[in-house]
Each structure stands twice: as C-alpha cells, then as structure tokens.
Amino acid sequence: MPKSKGRPVLHAATVLALLAGSAYFTVELRKDAEAKVPAVQSVTDKPDLENSAGKATGKQTWERLNNPTRSVLRGKDGEILATFTDGARTATLRGPSRTFTEPANTQSRVVTEDWVRLMPEAWRKGAEKEKWFKDWFKQYYGSEEDDIFAFAFQYVQGAPVKKDDEGVPYAGDAVFGPFKEDGVDRLEQNDFYDYLGMNYTFRDGTTMQARKERYRALDCSGFMRMVWGYRARYPLMATNTIGDGLPRSADGMARSKVGVDIIKLSGPSPWYTRPKNIDVVQPGDLLFFKMDHRTGNHLDHVALYLGVDTDGHRVFISSRKEVNGPTMGDKGGASRIDGNGFYAGLLRSAKRL
Predict the structure, then answer these.
(1) 215 within 8 A of 195, measured Cβ to Cβ
(2) Which InterPro entries match (predicted)?
(3) Per-residue b or e along 19-47, where b marks 16 or more CB atoms closer than 10 Å to that residue's CB
(4) pTM of the complete model
C-alpha cells in the first residue's frame, strides 16, 4: 500500500464488520465440471458466436479481432484463454472457476472462469512478443492471486476486515455513506481515503483530507477508485481536474480519455440514449448510468461488469444507496443491464481501463 498521512481510528463499525461474516459472499474454486453452469463468457464480434470455440489447431494461437480492436489468445482446442484490448491495461484471463454470491441481498450467482487483471502497460498490436508482457503473463496466467473481482467483493455486506502491515484496515464491509440531515438520503462523494480514514497524497503532490464522519464509506465512484486505484494500482486523479489517471466522479470517468470507450455515450442530453447493443461488453468493464434528473447533463452512477449469472442475466457490482454499500443485489432494482429493468433502462456507456 502507498504511504499516506495520518492513521484511521478503529470504531464500532469495524467490530460490526467482523461480526457480520455470516452474510459474507462465498468464493468457491470448482474442482470438477458443473453441467448446469454456463460456459465462460468471451467477447466476440457477433452475439451468436459468444462462448463458441475457434478452430482446433493443437497449439496456442493469437488472433486479431475488431469492435473493439483486440488480440485474443486461443488454446489448443480453439477456446479463448485471454483477451487484450488495444489501448487498455485491462486483461481478461481464463482461470479456475469461482462462484460469487451475496445471499444477504440477492439470489444471483456468478460462476466465472474470468480473472480480470491490470497489465503494467496498455495493450498494442504485437505486444505478445514483448518482454514486459511475457514476464507479466507468466506470472499471472493461472494465478489465483486476488484480481479485480476478488477486490470488489471484499467490500460487500459482511466482508471481513483486512489490515495492511501497519495495521490499517484496507478492506471490509463498506457503507455507501452517512445519512444527510433529513435522515432519508445519504451523503455522496465518499472516496477511498474516507473509507481508509487517512489523508492521502496523490502522485502530483495533492493531498486530500479524510473526513471522520465518512469513515468506511464508499460511493459508487469511490468504490471503483478503491478497487482499481488503491488496490490494483491504476493511477488516480485527486479530483476530476487535478492530476492524471482515473477521475473522481462517475461522469468524470465516463468522459475521460483513459482506457477505451467500448460503448460510446450517444443521444441528446441530459438523458442521452440507451445503447441498442451491449454484446461488446466483457467482464471488468466500467458501466455508466444516467439515473437522476438533479445531476443535469452528468452521468451519475458507475458499476463493474461481472458477466452472466447462472440465470443468464448480465450483472454488475456497484456501491448503492439502497443497500448502503457495494452490492450485486436486487434491492432498488436488479443489478442487470439486460432486459427492461431499472438499471438496464438507464445504462448509457461503457469503458475498458
């Protein structure tokens, strides 16, 4: 973890997080095939080709695909082992199967062989021949070290507290934010340093002050900054305008030049247009929504796409007011981007970091 100023003060929320382990999600490594589980999702150029294998060659092969421009590594039987998108550091690797659940808030189950990781450099055509990639791939392909998905589920309801070498709790049950004075709505703008309870100095030298009343709180974009930035080491801006890297807000992230726009924002403001086709999204993509008329032209919610659950729905995890924290839950609307549900109707764009 990076060096920061100040130390958090443990309080009752930490104790409660430790006691809530019974509601914590389960991550199971599957030892044998599960016939009822959908095959690993892979992104292809045509929806009807999803989950299909290429031609068996008896050896691993590289293939270039479009929409978005990317390289895929196929196995000996033609199955997709990894996907790398031009201009993005996000890699989706095939690995041991895991099951993500959150029984406290939903019956949805995601069984996936996708492991989402950050590469040290953005992908480019021919990078498979470069030393930096060969070294990185050798280390992480097949590795069960925590990835983006594992990080994300370490903040859902009942997640146990994890501490760094200095005793600072960096993971565990997070809330969305404290109540406003009206006792109904919750305060937003809760970033990762608020959750940590310590002041944080960014790469450009800007120091942001943690607010004690927001300790253990992450709003939707703060949750993404915790997972991708503080945990996975993606560069972070101090605000939407100061520094370089991933901006502070959902709207800032959506409109930023970082990463690759997989589904571009379109249509007239302030509500824009729901995408007609979402087949291009892959596990690990950031999803952006327009939900509140009070935010003007801004997109106001961001989520992490997980893939297809065992019911066949495309689901995500995000920090939400209704559940009061990170969730893939159903309260306030199912966390789905397919069909005609609440969030599906408000999806506006997607980005791959």
Answers:
(1) yes
(2) NLP_P60_dom, Papain-like_cys_pep_sf
(3) ebeeebbeeeeeeeeeeeebebbbbbeee
(4) 0.84
CA distances (Å), origin 349, targets 13, 74, 190, 272, 345? 35, 28, 23, 10, 12
Lowest mean pLDDT among 122-131, 156-165, 185-194: 185-194
List the one residue out of 284, 323, 296 whose CA is nearest residue 103: 323
Place of tokens 């993606």: 234
Which pair of tokens denotes residue 347?
Answer: 């999806």
C-alpha–C-alpha distance, residues 208 and 298, integer Å: 23
93 beta partners: 82, 115
Cβ–Cβ under 8 Å, residues 43 and 317: no
* Intra-chain end-to-end CA distance of the chain, in Å: 21
CB atoms within 10 A of CB 181: 7
Q: Where are the beta strands (DSSP E) in 144-234?
A: 162-163, 169-171, 200-201, 207-208
Q: What is the DSSP string of 149-165?
A: HHHHGGGSTTPPPEE-T
Tokens of 353: 């970091």
Strands 325-327 and 347-352, bridge-based pairing: unpaired
179 against 270, higher pLDDT: 270
Query: What CA dihedral angle connects 55, 58, 64 and 66, to 10 degrees?
Result: 30
136 dihedral zone (left: phi>0; alpha: psi -120 to 50; beta): alpha
Locus of tokens 């800032």: 252
Q: What is the mean pLDDT of residues 97-110?
A: 96
CA distance 197 to 267: 40
**183 confidence band (pLDDT: 50, 70, 90):** low
Measured CA to CA, the distance from residue 353 to residue 351 in angstroms comes to 6
CA angle 209–212–218, rounded 5-degree value: 80
Q: How far is CA 334 from CA 157, 242, 266, 280, 349, in A?
A: 17, 35, 24, 21, 18
Angle, alpha carbons 267-348-189 (nearest 5°)? 120
